[in-house]
């Protein structure tokens, strides 16, 4: 399946015109990752937003895994909020295939198409909200579990 078909099939990109989808797909690249392979490192310059096409990806910080990403999910979304560096390391937990979309071009498309831009940024907000809530739960629950252990 080519990149244009992949993007057109993803719910996030369905509202884009064929021309914009083709432009994004033209500068996107597919990458096959081995188990344990690093896709990007924390504190490395942001360059791409990724879609997990197959497999599972861990988003890690020095203290552990912040989130996991499965088929169809976005990661590397810091690139969409003008962050200069990735806040996490992305590592393939199993053999995986990802689609890397050039972040600068995607930001230009978001700015040119406000409805599409709003839709994408709403998804980004949901991703960060989920990670924030999960982090808060982990911060509260883990000490309680440790304290209750014999």
Task: Write down the domain tally.
Answer: 1
Distance between the termini: 53 Å
According to CATH, the fold-level topology is Jelly Rolls
Number of strands: 8
SSE string? HHEEEEEEEEHH
Question: Could you walk me through the main structural features you see in this protein, from its secondary elements to its overall organization?
Answer:
This protein is an alpha+beta fold. The protein has a single domain (3-148), classed as Jelly Rolls (Sandwich), CATH 2.60.120. The protein is 41% helix and 27% strand. The chain has four helices and eight strands, in the order H-H-E-E-E-E-E-E-E-E-H-H. It has helices at residues 3-9, 18-26, 103-112, 114-148; strands at 29-33, 38-40, 48-54, 56-61, 64-70, 74-75, 89-92, 96-102. The strands form two sheets. A four-stranded antiparallel β-sheet has the order 1-8-3-6. Helix 1 packs across helix 2 (18-26) and helix 3 packs across helix 4. The longest helix is centred in the C-terminal third of the chain and has 35 residues, at 114-148. It is globular. It starts with a helix and ends with a helix. The mean pLDDT is 83.
Topology:
Layout: H1 3-9, H2 18-26, E1 29-33, E2 38-40, E3 48-54, E4 56-61, E5 64-70, E6 74-75, E7 89-92, E8 96-102, H3 103-112, H4 114-148
Antiparallel strand pairs: 1-8, 2-7, 3-6, 3-8, 4-5, 4-7
Structure characteristics:
150 residues; alpha+beta; 4-stranded antiparallel sheet; 41% helix; Jelly Rolls
Please provide a brief summary of the model.
The chain has helices at 3-9, 18-26, 103-112, 114-148, and strands at 29-33, 38-40, 48-54, 56-61, 64-70, 74-75, 89-92, 96-102. The protein has 150 residues and is of the alpha+beta class.
């Amino acid at each position: 399946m080519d990149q244009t078909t992949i993007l057109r099939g993803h719910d996030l990109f369905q509202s884009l015109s064929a021309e914009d989808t083709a432009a994004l797909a033209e500068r996107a690249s597919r990458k096959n990752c081995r188990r344990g392979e690093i896709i990007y490192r924390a504190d490395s310059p942001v360059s791409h937003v990724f879609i997990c096409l197959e497999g599972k990806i861990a988003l890690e910080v020095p203290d552990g895994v912040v989130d996991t990403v499965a088929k169809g999910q976005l990661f590397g979304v810091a690139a969409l909020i003008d962050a200069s560096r990735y806040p996490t390391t992305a590592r393939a937990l199993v053999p995986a295939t990802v689609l890397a979309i050039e972040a600068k071009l995607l930001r230009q498309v978001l700015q040119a198409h406000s409805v599409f831009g709003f839709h994408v940024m709403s998804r980004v907000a949901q991703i960060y909200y989920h990670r924030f809530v999960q982090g808060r739960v982990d911060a509260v629950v883990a000490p309680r579990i440790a304290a209750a252990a014999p």
